Amino acid sequence: MDFDFTWLLWGLPLAFALGWGASRLDLRQWRIESRQAPKAYFRGLNHLLNEQQDQAIDAFIEAVQGDPDTAELHFALGNLFRRRGDYDRAVRVHEHLLARADLSRKDRDRAQHALALDFLKAGLLDRAESALHKLEGSAFEGEALLALLAIYERSRDWPQAKQIAQRLEAAEQGSFTTRLAHYLCEEAEQAQRNGDKVQAMRLLEEAAQRAPQLARSWIALSALNAQLGQPLAAFDALRMLSEQAPQALPLAAHALVELAVQTGRQTEAQALLQAWDARAASIDVTEALANLSNPPEARQRYLDHLAREPSLVMATRWLAGEPWPDETAHSRVLAALEQASAPLKRYRCAACGFEARQHFWQCPGCQTWDSYPARRVEEL
């Protein structure tokens, strides 16, 4: 049977026409999607500028669906999810980016850094730590080390924190001398809780040698020597405090008086406290000086303080020694004044405003070091 070439002549043009039509349809669809993607992107940007995060997320999702290979849109979308607190979706976006084989090294490091931030914000510290370690040698290494330092401080892993701080200092990311001394003091506290006072003493001496200007090490050394039954060494530590970190003397004023009485060095202690008092009025210093004085002199010190600086705390102290004809009324007035002045005796963080009855070397609220002044709220 002979083959009819007539069908071939008709089929080739028909196949060409169908292929051309299909390509035109694909091209038209591509143009439509290309126009829609930028529109969705700019719409999302407009929502973002107007602080309409939910609408911005919807627009960016639409843009990403139109062009799933656009890395910048993924980064924008992931950051929006994180800012909104939707950490699970932020993690999925950045993990999707890391799974792409065509991602450049720069964008891969950027996605890894963003993923670490997602875990940090979500409170998944172990996963954040693992993600941050993968940024070694990248452009984000400095930021990663700072984040790791915050993690180890938060988890109170002081040996690891020391290693990271030393790496940051070696990389010229700033001076971490004072912070390293704080870590030594923290390790000393742990050693004391474990009953190893010898190790605690060694760590505190190293901290004082590393950062003599850090008041914490001298105060801790004094307290440890007092526990070991060495009041002279304890007093000497506070004398070093007055020389190296005089601004912190009010924190140790009462301990200085107690040690002075034990060692018979009241005159030296009084001279140290009066030197501070000559520069500025302090509730703790005035009370410490009053404890070294007889009752009439003590009440006069309270009045002298009030003449320099109004203080409800000092007024309450003075009134406590003033004779009243009605003792019941006297005690009620004093109780009311004590209650009213109690909040004024607190310490306040200069970084976040967190108030506490005791002085902290690291703020429990914002985790900032040395943010508590050695002055009460009433004196600020």
Number of strands: 2
Structural class: mainly alpha
Proportion of residues in β-strands:
under 5%
Q: Ranges with pLDDT <50 over ≥5 residues?
A: 29-37
Structural overview:
The protein has 380 residues and is an all-alpha fold. 71% of the residues lie in helices and 1% in strands. Among the domains are: 69-154, Serine Threonine Protein Phosphatase 5, Tetratricopeptide repeat, CATH 1.25.40.10; 229-343; 346-380. The chain has helices spanning 5-49, 53-66, 71-84, 87-99, 105-122, 125-133, 141-154, 158-170, 177-193, 197-210, 215-227, 231-244, 253-263, 266-279, 283-291, 295-308, 312-320, 327-341, and strands at 347-348, 355-356. Mean pLDDT is 82; it is low at 29-37.
Which features does this protein show?
18 helices, two-stranded antiparallel ribbon, 1% strand, mainly alpha, 380 residues, Serine Threonine Protein Phosphatase 5, Tetratricopeptide repeat
Write the layout of secondary structure elements.
Blueprint: H1 5-49, H2 53-66, H3 71-84, H4 87-99, H5 105-122, H6 125-133, H7 141-154, H8 158-170, H9 177-193, H10 197-210, H11 215-227, H12 231-244, H13 253-263, H14 266-279, H15 283-291, H16 295-308, H17 312-320, H18 327-341, E1 347-348, E2 355-356
Helix pairs in contact: 1-2, 2-3, 3-4, 3-5, 4-5, 5-6, 6-7, 7-8, 8-9, 9-10, 10-11, 11-12, 12-13, 13-14, 13-15, 14-15, 15-16, 16-17, 17-18
